[in-house]
User: Which sequence fits this backbone?
């Protein structure tokens, strides 16, 4: 198997997840909106308002960046038609119950091919596009806007956090199962990209890094997460390692372990991880 195949490994294995259930029950998953990208294409995102009771002045939003190629095919009801088994989408209802609005971001309309975001994840233009979403959200919710990436989505999140300033910059960053190891021998050159491909030293916003001790995905070894924290200048940072869950004993490291249903995807531990994220966003520890 070619290592670049990781692009597709986060594809959904079931449609019976929380967001799909919400769509069936209420007809929509969030408010679908679009921006014009720096290249003149369009990029859709879906804002789902919080349902929980946030403390006064604690209204916040979390911009979510899915791994793989990032193409989630958001429809007019704000529902992801692809990659909708991803851990971020499964956590979304839990985050909203805790008082955090969730914002799913799709790929630009000119990157909906086989590779999706591919090598664009580390581009200045990609950060600029995400900055437009953040600025629009901040104006709308009148509160902090954080950014979170899972798997290859961590490259995009780190890129945005490193490049953006002012009203376009995220108020904080969360990296789940970050991409720490690339493959320079892969057929697709961008498979060599990791979070270290961006200027981590430029990240000054609060930073939470979460991985699973049993993650056997060859791209995201949890014991190396501290290397990210060591390079940033984050005002506040924490590295958290999740344990437990339905872990397969003796799982050999490889790209197959980067799939949905693996520790890499925090299967059956959504509530624990979501709660830790919210605590960190509100100034506490994971």
Assistant:
């Amino acid at each position: 198997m070619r290592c670049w195949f990781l692009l597709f490994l986060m594809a959904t294995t079931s449609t019976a997840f929380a967001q799909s259930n919400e769509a069936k029950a209420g007809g929509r998953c969030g408010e679908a909106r679009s921006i014009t990208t720096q290249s003149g294409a369009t990029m859709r995102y879906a804002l789902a308002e919080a349902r929980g009771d946030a403390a006064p002045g604690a209204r916040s939003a979390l911009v979510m960046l899915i791994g793989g190629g990032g193409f989630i095919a958001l429809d007019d009801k704000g529902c992801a038609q692809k990659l909708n088994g991803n851990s971020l989408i499964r956590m979304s209802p839990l985050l909203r119950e805790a008082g955090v609005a969730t914002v799913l971001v799709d790929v630009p309309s000119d990157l909906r091919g086989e590779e999706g975001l591919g090598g664009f994840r580390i581009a200045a233009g990609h950060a600029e596009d995400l900055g437009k979403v953040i600025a629009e959200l901040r104006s709308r919710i009148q509160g902090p806007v954080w950014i979170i990436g899972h798997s290859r989505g961590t490259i995009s999140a780190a890129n945005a956090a490193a490049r953006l300033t002012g009203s376009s910059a995220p108020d904080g960053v969360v990296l789940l199962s970050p991409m720490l190891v690339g493959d320079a021998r892969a057929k697709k050159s961008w498979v060599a990209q990791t979070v270290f491909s961006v200027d981590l030293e430029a990240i000054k916003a609060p930073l939470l890094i979460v991985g699973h001790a049993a993650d056997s995905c060859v791209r995201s070894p949890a014991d190396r997460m501290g290397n990210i924290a060591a390079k940033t200048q984050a005002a506040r940072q924490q590295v958290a390692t999740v344990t437990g869950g339905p872990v397969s004993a003796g799982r050999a490291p490889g790209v197959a372990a980067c799939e949905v249903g693996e520790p890499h995807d925090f299967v059956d531990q959504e509530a624990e991880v979501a709660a830790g994220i919210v605590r960190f966003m509100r100034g506490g520890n994971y």
Remarks:
- Residues 3-281 form a domain with the Rossmann fold fold (CATH 3.40.50.1820).
- The chain has one domain: 3-281.
- The chain has six helices and eight strands.
- The longest strand covers residues 100-108.
